[in-house]
């Protein structure tokens, strides 16, 4: 029997990248979107079925989950009452008979002082205290975060963020995360695993500016934005900015025993114990001029 996969937030910039990865694998996909105007786009990306829903509306969540066997869940950015909404969604999935739950969480959800991290932990807790099959994805800082500022970077020649130029971060392209999510939803090798996902390197803003400059063929200047100058709706993120200013976010890629780099770290819950188990051994995307999509393919 073909099992239906529900992709929550399928018209979003992150879950939307999961759709074509599932379609490549011949999955039966139901897309949950917030606005009916996005239906054509998600169908083009691979969804066969589309439902309009709102995570804060239990009736629409129940309708979206009807006859669904597997779920990809990523909450919207700055979702009000995120932990409660997420736990309610887990409860609804269990009640609907969902068997597998793949949660796109965040790197280090134990960082209790950072709401955008800590609010993911209660959702993971709800899954772990159920009989659901699960995979937790912990991506670090996303390269897609530069997309909204890209035109300004190109025009001004400056890459700027509201924390120190010197603190270092692991980063990842969400297209790679989406590929891992599709593996977790359609295969069994990532079951009961937690995967910290990052690309190569611990980059400060000088490194990022150098990479952008390599792509654009000219010098790009790194700059720190004073977070006090940001608009009011960004002030809720001040704890995150302060943490990033002092510490950054650190993860590292793991070398496999066969000498090749793993694109993603092996889940702690891997049931085989094999260093080859988990995600495939391809490297992350390399978008610099003259480079292939993957550095080892």
Rg (C-alpha, Å): 19 Å
- The total count of helices amounts to 10
CATH architecture descriptor of the domain at 4-142 and 172-197: 3-Layer(aba) Sandwich
- On the 0-100 scale, what is the average pLDDT? 86
Going by CATH, the homologous superfamily of the domain at 4-142 and 172-197 would be: NAD(P)-binding Rossmann-like Domain
In CATH, the topology of the domain at 4-142 and 172-197 is named: Rossmann fold
Query: At the first level of CATH, what is the class of the domain at 4-142 and 172-197?
Result: Alpha Beta
Strand line-up across the major sheet: 3-2-1-4-5-6-10
Runs with pLDDT <50, length 5+? 254-282, 289-297
What is the count of β-strands?
11
- Overall 3D shape: globular
List keywords for this structure.
297 residues; alpha/beta; Rossmann fold; seven-stranded parallel sheet; two-stranded parallel ribbon; 10 helices; 31% helix; 16% strand; globular; disordered C terminus
A few lines on this structure:
With 297 residues, the chain is an alpha/beta fold.
